[in-house]
Amino acid sequence: MKRWRDLMEQEMSAIAEKIIGYQKKHNLTDTELALNLHITVERLHNIKSMESQPTAEETAKLTKFIN
Questions:
Q1: How many angstroms separate the CA atoms of 63 and 3, rounded?
Q2: Per residue in 15-55, pLDDT tens?
Q3: Of 56, 57, 54, 4, nearest to 19 (Cα)?
Q4: CATH number, domain 2-66
Q5: What Gene Ontology molecular function terms does this protein carry (predicted)?
Q6: Residues 65, 36: contact at Cβ < 8 Å?
Q7: DSSP letters of 1-67?
């Protein structure tokens, strides 16, 4: 169970790092990125701070937009 949790935290951390890196590279605010992703700013904050895990749909949106 701990191993699974560690893997999930690493995955969440990787997503958060990708979001932050993309924002810095493209000079985007949280509001601008959230609008592009069609999610709320609060939801984006929760994902970036790793307070909550993105859904499969959110992960797909983030991956498609950032890559």
A1: 24
A2: 899 999 999 999 999 999 999 999 999 999 999 999 998 99
A3: 54
A4: 1.10.260.40
A5: DNA binding
A6: yes
A7: -HHHHHHHHHHHHHHHHHHHHHHHHHT--HHHHHHHHTS-HHHHHHHHTTSSPPPHHHHHHHHHHH-
pLDDT of residue 3: 72
- For the chain, the structural domain boundaries read 2-66
Position 10 scores a pLDDT of 67
**Position of tokens 């904050």?**
45
Cα 51 to the center of its chain, rounded Å: 11
Q: Which residue has the tokens 């895990």?
A: 53
Q: Which amino acid is present at 53?
A: Q
pTM metric for this prediction:
0.80
